[in-house]
Amino acid sequence: MAVTDAQNPLVGEATCGTLLKKLQEIWDEVGESDEDRDKMLIQIEQECLDVYKKKVEQAAKSRVQLLEALSDAKIELARLLSALGEKSFAGIPEKTSGTIKEQLAAIAPALEQLWEQKAERVKEFSDVHSQIQKICGEIAGNLNINDAPAVDEADLSLKKLDEYHAQLQELQKEKSGRLHKVLEFVSSVHDLCAVLGMDFFSTVTDVHPSLIDSTGAQSKSISNDTLARLAKTVLALKEDKKQRLHKLQELTNQLIDLWNLMDTPMEERKLFDHVTCNMLASVDEVAAPGALALDLIEQAEVEVERLDQLKASRMKEIAFRKQAELEEIYVHAHIEIDPEAAREKIMTLIDSGNVEPTELLADMDNQISRAKEEALSRKEILDKVEKWMSACEEESWLEDYNRDENRYNASRGAHLNLKRAEKARILVNKIPALVDTLVAKTRAWEEDRGIQFAYDGVPLLAMLDEYAMLRQEREEEKRRMRDQKKFHEQQNTEQDAIFSARPSPARPVGTKKVVGPRANGSANGTPSRRLSLNSHQNGSSSATKGGRRDNRLSAPVNYVSISKDDAASHFSGTDTVSASP
């Protein structure tokens, strides 16, 4: 290799001139013609041009590539700024003068920073998208979402990121609300299952397995389907609770009725305090664990069945007790019944076995219920009847009191009787209005029900009418007695006046005629009319009263018959005197 390099004259420092000179020497030594030499030189020149041309083309191509790179860099810079929502960037040079490479070198740092910022922004968008996608999946019921969310790199502005953050916050708020609802539903299911004696875990698992995860390792389902199924489960449990409570209360009422019928001691009743404690409770008030368990209801059913069987053996005693209650209601309501026939009918029904004991008792309960309603409808009238009868008793006492001639004597207790008489008079004065009110209310009652209102078997209106007639007769009798008494007193007064007005036998006749008109004016016209009335009324009085009054009135009557004749003659004499001028 060293020998070859020593023999090669082209090796070493060489320029175009030295090479051309060396070529001339070689040509001279070889003896090349001028023509060949010219061709060779032209060829060398052409080859040099080709090399230069190639180099120029390469340089031009490199320049174009640099310009394209600069243009791409500027486009990328603008795209990054647009995607990031930035109007300007601090690292971008304000002036773009200089060579292409200088311009590229000036833009490159800004591009690097924007690429890094874009990568961070994409990561933020991806995180927000992932959370949004996860929450949307939880709401939709799809908990297994593993695909990475696609990020739109064309818009990575902070405004868009804030919109996604706002959307994420709304979804998180909705998730929190849904989770709160889920927990409320789960808590309600837990409480209802405790009251009903049901398995909470199996009930919740049937809705969604994630709801029983107490460690929080698995997210609880908050989907619409889960919420709907939870709500349906809660409604079903509440309805079951309502039905069980209603059934338990019915059993409790049956137990209490049977206990009361058979006089069950308190010691036996206390054994079922856990059953009867919710007799009056509402659905929301029952919250004790196991208060409505099926075994408790079955226990109450068994006890009711046992007492029913025991009740059948004591049917007669219970039926007669109800009949006694019914009779007591009728007695207090003053309704007339036939208790012996009713008891015989009960005995016949029980002995025949044609009626179920429960049906018989239910029928008697219905009779008692109707009797109570009937008694209630009669109560207002019966209260006024009691007042009326009490007033009639006071009226009777007052009449006896008024007939007592010694009622004003200063005897022991006279002042009490006097006070009672005053009160009795006030009460007696109210009787007519009370009777009118009773008649109106009784007629309204009868029109409303279409039946007659009877008081101990007697029509009340007939009683009131009879009382009104008797009271009217008694008032007429009292008025007639007062008139008779007044008439007798007036008659005695007039008779005394007649005796004093008659002339003595020793008086002259002329004097009698003179004073006749004056006597006529005082003792002739009016007494004659009253006497005829007296004779008629005295006759009726003697027919109705005793002999004592007849004897007392006999003398005035005879005297009146004599005085009439004398009065007639006196009238004629008076007329004669009056006729003369």
From TrEMBL:
Keywords assigned: Cytoplasm, Cytoskeleton, Microtubule, Nucleus, Phosphoprotein
Span list, region Disordered: 475-581
Annotated GO biological process: cytokinesis by cell plate formation; microtubule cytoskeleton organization
Pfam family, one: MAP65_ASE1
Keyword Cell division attributed: no
Source organism, top-level taxon: Eukaryota
Compositionally skewed regions (Basic and acidic residues) per UniProt: 475-491
GO terms for MF: microtubule binding
Listed Polar residues bias regions: 521-544, 571-581
Gene Ontology cellular-component terms listed: cytoplasm; microtubule; nucleus; spindle
Protein biosynthesis found in the keyword field: no
Subcellular location: Cytoplasm, Cytoskeleton; Nucleus
Family from the record: Belongs to the MAP65/ASE1 family.
Name of protein: 65-kDa microtubule-associated protein 1-like
High-level lineage: Eukaryota, Viridiplantae, Streptophyta, Embryophyta, Tracheophyta
